[in-house]
Amino acid sequence: MIIDHIGIVVKSIEKGIEHWEKVFEYKKMTNVVINSRQKVRVVFLSKENSLTVKLIEPTDESSPTYKFARKGGGLHHICFKCEDMNKELKRFSEKGLRVLAAPQPGEAFGNENIAFVYAKQGLNIELIETDIKAGRLF
Questions:
Q1: For the whole model, what pTM was predicted?
Q2: What letter does residue 5 receive in the DSSP assignment?
């Protein structure tokens, strides 16, 4: 497994993009994509020789990230790309981690499967098996 990106919850995706471009010199890597299952808008940002950042904005009060965003947001998850998601989910479960969301299509990844695991110490882990980023600009 390798780290694919870090996910940051923001109140406003437009203001988040502006902040990351101005302060950290990241560039918008994708268009904003709506994830209807998670009820969020997401965008990927990139910078040469750095980790990819995914900004996440809840679309309504029923989003799992809504309360977190209203409190100011922040680090939401670390995403690992793996070869076999089901194998990693089994391995994580055997190590006492809790599966939060079983594999399901993720619109931000061209409807390839994503899954979420709670890794203790307040850390959410997202798992993917793809390099696809929907709405990619470059």
A1: 0.94
A2: E
